[in-house]
Amino acid sequence: MPPKDRGRGKLPVPLPRGVILKDTEGKVWRLGSQIGQGGFGLIYLASPQTHAPVEDDAVHVIKVEYLENGPLFSELKFYQRAAKQEHIRKWMNLKKIRCLGIPVFWGSGLTEYKGKSYRFMVMERLGEDLQRIFEDCGSRFKKETVLQLGARMLDTLEYIHENEYVHGDIKAANLLLGYTNPHEVYLADYGLSYRYCPNGNHKQYQENPKKGHNGTIEFTSVDAHKGVAPSRRGDLEILGYCMLQWLCGKLPWEQNLKDPVAVQTAKTKLMDELPYSVMEWDSSGSSCGEIAKFLACVYGLAYDEKPKYQVLKKILLDGLESSGTRYDGPLEFSAAACAQNHCAATASKVCLPRPMPKTVQQKQKKMEGEDYKACTGVTGKQFQDEEKPRKLSRMLHQTEPQQVCLQKSSPKAVQQKQNKVEEEERNCLSGLHARVTCRQVQAEEKTIKCYTVTQEADRPPK
């Protein structure tokens, strides 16, 4: 059972350097110097070599909290249930990916010191966190780097979600580069992780104002602001906000972080007015296209709907195509590169809306005459069971697809997979387009009369 005062705690009294800890598997670990601390725990260097002092280049760390504290308990349960190394290796082979951004868990246990009980967890050592790097880069990342980070986090989140968990607190401070492989990025700190689908039963949508505004206020989802339990779409929404901050340097609500309701209102407005709200937020306009499209697809998810991860990933990979950057290639963090990216983007300001090519107009007219569904079917009852629907602006014009192949497959198999992803993307985006309301169409294109609307929704029915 989790501690009764879960989520509340204080930093523990530091353990002495050189103390020997034994985990539940009987392995022993020697404690080195303290190298950091979190909200409730301390982090030490560690080594399985107990006969010698722990060196400064040790590749293990131990996270220590008081036994009654809750976050480390939640984190520990995540690793024990969902992050077994053999499962991660099988997943990587299945998905043909080179790295999955989940730190290696080595063990855990309990110990006592000066009459106090401690819980500890042994992990692989990680490098610098992205928040520090972001600040060193003038609070702006290169566009290619943002898209790389987003695509890699999608890989990580897909694995986490498939194992019945959501992270709930994605942000630069919780993204760390590898210690021995600094071109890999890892999602750490699972203290707010949540088992959204225990034994295959998804939690029900239910707003609870008493639990509202949970998580990190800058990035937490609209659902979390309403006190709804974390979900897959919430994780993806948080990731979208992170990418928007990394690319633009700030978020529209950062001046109101002490007022959670104002932040919630600003996020709701941004999501309601996609894609233009995102496109117009940055002075560069066009550089936010992939993020606007990404968030619009996330916005179209029902609370308990499984996301189309490959569709979302393809949106980001398409943005990397022109630069020839591989999403699993080296990450570039430099103030000069970020500044150069900002100047180049600013020089290419875009005035929205832009006229559509004739072929796109014809395609949209065809779409308006059909009853398109979102990524999955929904019922009228689901509309009534959850939050009031919000309205969605027209979706971004679709770009030409890109094929990124990380495995050696036959051309026919590759083409079939590409076609499937493209079809899912078209279905998702066309479903969003079909839910534009009469009022929005009239405001954007006064020459069009709207007599009927097949569906009216902000988020798809739950």
UniProtKB/TrEMBL annotation:
GO terms for molecular function: ATP binding; protein serine/threonine kinase activity. The keyword Oxidoreductase does not apply. It is a single-pass type IV membrane protein; Single-pass membrane protein. It is an enzyme of class 2 (transferase). Its EC number is 2.7.11.1. Its main location: cytoplasm. It holds the Pfam family Pkinase. It catalyses: L-threonyl-[protein] + ATP = O-phospho-L-threonyl-[protein] + ADP + H(+); L-seryl-[protein] + ATP = O-phospho-L-seryl-[protein] + ADP + H(+). It comes from the Eukaryota. The keyword Ribonucleoprotein does not apply. Residues 29-317 form the Protein kinase domain. Keywords: ATP-binding, Cytoplasm, Endoplasmic reticulum, Kinase, Membrane, Mitochondrion, Nucleotide-binding, Nucleus, Phosphoprotein, Serine/threonine-protein kinase, Transferase, Transmembrane, Transmembrane helix. It is found in: Cytoplasm; Endoplasmic reticulum membrane; Mitochondrion membrane; Nucleus envelope. Belongs to the protein kinase superfamily. CK1 Ser/Thr protein kinase family. VRK subfamily. PANTHER family: CASEIN KINASE-RELATED (PTHR11909). This is Serine/threonine-protein kinase VRK2. It comes from Pterocles burchelli.
